[in-house]
């Protein structure tokens, strides 16, 4: 068993629930971040998505300012910014500003995907697909803008230069693993929707990692779905909302998050069930004891340094409770490992 303690963090997509305004949704994100900070979560990340009626995190850097200004110590960051949508200079300035406002609290997770459909990608940036091919060199350029070494360049980021905002590579394939390893950056895998290649990607990353002064050793984080409740039966019911969300993705029927109903499970055909089961292969559902046992096996198998959870739960109070149960499950897991070492 691993002896190191596992950190726990939160990914929030600002999912809009049925009969809930965007304003109320963003206020819930703020309160969730405050709750995570109170519990002892390591970081709170938000993801860039576009043209989705049920997601309110499109203006990610703006939203992170809101979250950071209403918290005090939890790390706040992007999980992630989709770099091909943006100029590296603009992202350096935005996150340099965030770091200047909230010193030593900002993370910059970077992804290659559009965070939307192809039509929207072109609407955001006409040369989006060309920029995806430039993803590795744009990361290097962004890193340079944020460093002291850029002070003699013709183009400089203000704010940004010298802030050295920590960069993360986000991925859902083995390509991202090779890239993160070659750049010597921490690596976060999207196990909450694409878990199939995760263990292979982590192995590739660790085997090919190039240490540097900033990141002398590889560092892995897995994002997974966690639905917790006081009983396994209640948690299973709450998870129906998660299944409905992914079924909407498969059917291309995006809509606000719905209250949990077992009817959604009965409406799926065999092909849809197979697709959803593959997408939700890293989903942990149950009471605190069940979560602890499930996560202990996952942590041991994956060898991760940090666990990031996301929870599609319709009732916000129940989501807060699930967030607490997840934290307590990981804390109990760490306590067990500490006893084993002694």
UniProtKB/TrEMBL annotation:
Gene3D superfamilies: Luciferase-like domain. Pfam families: Bac_luciferase. One of its GO terms (molecular function) is oxidoreductase activity, acting on paired donors, with incorporation or reduction of molecular oxygen. Residues 23-304 form the Luciferase-like domain. CDD domains: Flavin_utilizing_monoxygenases (cd00347). It comes from the Bacteria. InterPro entries: Bact_Lucif_Oxidored, CmoO-like, Luciferase-like_dom, Luciferase-like_sf. One of its GO terms (cellular component) is cytosol. To bacterial alkanal monooxygenase alpha and beta chains. This is Luciferase-like monooxygenase. It comes from Flexibacter flexilis DSM 6793. The lineage of its organism: Bacteria, Pseudomonadati, Bacteroidota, Cytophagia, Cytophagales.
């Amino acid at each position: 068993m691993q002896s190191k303690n596992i950190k726990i963090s939160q990914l929030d997509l600002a999912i809009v629930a049925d009969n809930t305004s965007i304003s109320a949704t963003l206020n819930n994100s703020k309160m969730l971040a405050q709750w995570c900070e109170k519990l002892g979560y390591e970081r709170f990340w938000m993801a860039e998505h576009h043209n989705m009626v049920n997601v309110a995190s499109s203006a990610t850097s703006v939203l992170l300012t809101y979250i950071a200004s209403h918290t005090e110590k939890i790390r706040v960051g992007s999980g992630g910014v989709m770099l091909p949508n943006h100029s590296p200079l603009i992202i350096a300035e935005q996150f340099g500003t965030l770091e200047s406002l909230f010193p030593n609290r900002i993370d910059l997770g970077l992804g290659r995907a559009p965070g939307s459909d192809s039509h929207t990608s072109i609407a955001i940036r006409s040369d989006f697909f060309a920029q995806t091919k430039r993803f590795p060199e744009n990361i290097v350029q962004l890193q340079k803008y944020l460093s002291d070494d850029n002070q003699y360049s013709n183009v400089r980021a203000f704010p940004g230069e010298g802030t050295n905002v920590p960069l993360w590579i986000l991925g859902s394939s083995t390509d991202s693993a090779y890239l993160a390893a070659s750049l010597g950056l921490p690596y976060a895998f999207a196990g909450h929707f694409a878990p199939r290649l995760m263990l292979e990607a982590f192995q590739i990353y660790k085997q090919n990692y190039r240490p540097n002064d900033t990141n002398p050793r590889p560092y892995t984080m897995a994002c997974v779905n966690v639905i917790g409740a006081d009983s396994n039966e209640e948690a299973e019911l709450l998870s129906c909302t998660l299944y409905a969300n992914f079924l909407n993705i498969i059917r291309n029927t995006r809509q606000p998050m719905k209250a949990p109903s077992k009817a959604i499970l009965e409406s799926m055909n065999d092909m849809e069930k197979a697709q959803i089961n593959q997408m939700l292969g890293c989903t942990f559902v149950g009471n605190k004891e069940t979560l602890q046992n499930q996560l202990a096996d996952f942590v041991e198998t994956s060898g991760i340094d940090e666990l990031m959870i996301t929870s599609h739960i319709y009732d916000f109070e129940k989501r807060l409770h699930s967030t607490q149960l997840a934290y307590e499950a990981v804390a109990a897991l760490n306590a067990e490992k500490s006893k084993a070492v002694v």
